[in-house]
Amino acid sequence: MGSTDVTAFADLEQARGLLDRTSTAERVASILRDRILEGSLPPSTRLPEDLIGQALGVSRNTLREAFRVLSHERLLVHQINRGVFVRRLTADDLVDLYRVRRLVEVAAVRANDRLGEEQLRPLRETVEEGQAAAKDDRWVDVGTANIHFHLALGGLAGSPRVDAVLRQFLAELRLVFHVMNNPREFHEPYLERNLEILTLLEAGDIDAAARALEAYLNEAERQILTVLASSERTAHTPR
Predict the structure, then answer these.
(1) CB 87, CB 77: distance < 8 Å
(2) Does the chain have fewer CB atoms within 10 Å around its N or its C terminus?
(3) Distances in Å between the alpha carbon of 35 and those of 15, 175, 218?
(4) Which CATH number does the domain housing residue 75 bear?
């Protein structure tokens, strides 16, 4: 299962500055979680203890505790005598993730009768981020911008706990994005849909924005499930 791509960890030392003398395994887990969320660590990537520990300047025990945190979040899996790997999600995982997303994101949108500029600004910035990436044909980055958009939607709830839960679930979701063979074909339509939701929220039509988001999530789930099922069939086909 998988192999180690050393280039995925080449710039990890830059994150070392995020750690200080009071750093904990939770801080290390946060750095690795963000790498997964941003798409830097695809499914089946092996996480070498020596390389990561040296890059971040943390002990093996601290790193292993971080691995346990992320394994509990279903982002990593430990294989006996082989090491720790980024998980590959199943169709059942995907269905459950979208169930949670509908509960959390739609409720976050409905949490306010009207939104102020301070609440709308992060959403507008993520829409612009996606548009800029698309203009430069950076379609993987468009996927990252889309993740940021949904984190910003969750932020409308005004709850640090909602933010943490959604960040974990969207990190899991990002692992599924890697099965999409054509990132542009997958992500491009959602640029317009993100803009549509933002426009509705700017107009104060919260109910319409929530309904648009729910339809959006339903369609995305169906689309990814179709590709995931095809990928799983191919993986199990005798050669």
Answers:
(1) yes
(2) C
(3) 10, 11, 26
(4) 1.10.10.10
Radius of gyration of the chain (CA): 19
> Is 157 a member of any domain?
yes
Give residue-wise pLDDT tens across range 180-201. Answer: 878 899 899 999 999 999 999 9
The pTM assigned to this predicted structure is 0.80
Q: 235 pLDDT exceeds 80?
A: no
Quote the domain boundaries for residue 193: 91-235
User: Is 1 domain-assigned?
Assistant: no
Distance CA 175, CA 177 (A): 6
Tell me: do 129 and 201 sit in the same domain.
yes
d(CA 239, CA 225): 24
Q: What are the DSSP calls for 99-140, one per residue?
A: HHHHHHHHHHHTT-SS--HHHHHHHHHHHHHHHHHHHTT-HH
Side chain identity at residue 69, one-letter code = V
